[in-house]
């Protein structure tokens, strides 16, 4: 990787850590004192309505959906997507995904520690504080970055790219709802997670677009293209195996 690329990534990482520190202070000192009580009242009302309307027959389905945003699947997905970016010689995309996910993970844990919010009484095996939802935050970022990469011109038909992105949007929405349907999060945990990760996704997307305007990706030819496709195919098979294992578990 050339010098300018390393400096751009380092600057982006430092900016993300600075943003994490500022948001941590903001949530701990301002947001909690101004909005926490009213948020708790609204959450209790909305949570009661959700619990009354949920169908127990759908609980196994939502449990499977929520696994697609959990620690048993997303780290594997990030690793496989990063490897896929490297195999396609899209090194900036792979590093951006890996670093962006790491920074957001740190930020979410900082906010959780600052707020130390209790989970709903219906939460099962939930050890960490509730706000914000890590499942929703990381799902929004990982699937959102993947959607941005897919939407970029890449040789596939636009209708196919739009269809794939629509599936990803529906998946993030389903993961978000699954946290509520399972009683694992308060509604504001999900909303706060979406806002936080949406802001971070916007910053990463802007950085990626700016970089790619200055450094268009190089087309692969010959043996390099063949080996790239072989590697991508192998990673796709590995991804399906991980997906099957997570859903079966």
Describe this structure in words.
This is Phosphatase PAP2 family protein. By secondary structure, the chain is mostly helical. It has one domain (3-28, 62-248). The chain is 79% helix and 0% strand. The protein is built from eight helices and no strands. It has helices at residues 3-53, 59-67, 74-87, 91-115, 134-151, 158-181, 187-214, 222-248. It is globular, with a radius of gyration of 19 Å.
Structural class: mainly alpha
What is the 3D form? globular
N-C termini distance: 39 Å
Please, how many helices?
8
Mean pLDDT, as a whole number? 77
Q: Quick one: how many beta strands?
A: 0
**Order of SSEs:** HHHHHHHH
Proportion of residues in helical segments: over 70%
Rg: 19 Å
Number of domains: 1
Largest β-sheet summary = none
What amount of the residues lies in strands?
Answer: under 5%
Give the oligomeric state of the chains in this entry, treating copies of one chain as homo and distinct chains as hetero.
single chain
Task: Give unreliable regions as ranges.
Answer: none
Organism: Acidithiobacillus ferrianus
Pfam family, one: PAP2
Transmembrane segments: 68-88, 95-114, 134-152, 159-178, 190-209, 230-248
Keywords: Membrane, Transmembrane, Transmembrane helix
């Amino acid at each position: 990787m050339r010098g300018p690329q390393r400096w751009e990534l380092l600057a982006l990482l430092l900016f993300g850590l600075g943003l994490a520190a500022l948001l941590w202070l903001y949530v701990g000192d301002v947001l909690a004192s101004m909005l926490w009580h009213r948020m708790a009242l609204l959450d209790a009302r909305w949570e009661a309505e959700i619990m009354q309307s949920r169908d127990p027959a759908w609980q196994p389905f939502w449990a499977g959906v929520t696994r697609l945003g959990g620690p048993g699947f997303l780290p594997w997905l990030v690793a496989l997507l990063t490897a896929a970016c490297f195999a396609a010689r899209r090194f900036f995309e792979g590093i951006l995904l890996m670093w962006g996910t790491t920074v957001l993970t740190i930020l979410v844990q900082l906010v959780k520690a600052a707020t130390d919010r209790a989970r709903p009484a219906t939460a099962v095996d939930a050890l960490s504080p509730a706000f914000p939802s890590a499942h929703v935050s990381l799902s929004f970022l990982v699937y959102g970055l993947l959607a941005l990469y897919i939407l970029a011109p890449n040789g596939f038909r636009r209708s196919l790219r739009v269809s794939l992105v629509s599936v990803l949007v529906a998946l993030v929405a389903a993961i978000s709802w699954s946290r509520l349907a399972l009683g694992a999060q308060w509604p504001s945990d999900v909303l706060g997670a979406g806002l936080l990760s949406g802001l971070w996704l916007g910053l990463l997307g802007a950085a990626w677009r700016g970089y790619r305007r200055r450094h268009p990706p190089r087309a692969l030819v010959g043996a390099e293209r063949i080996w790239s496709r072989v590697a991508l195919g192998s990673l796709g098979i590995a991804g399906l195996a991980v997906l099957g294992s997570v859903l079966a578990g």
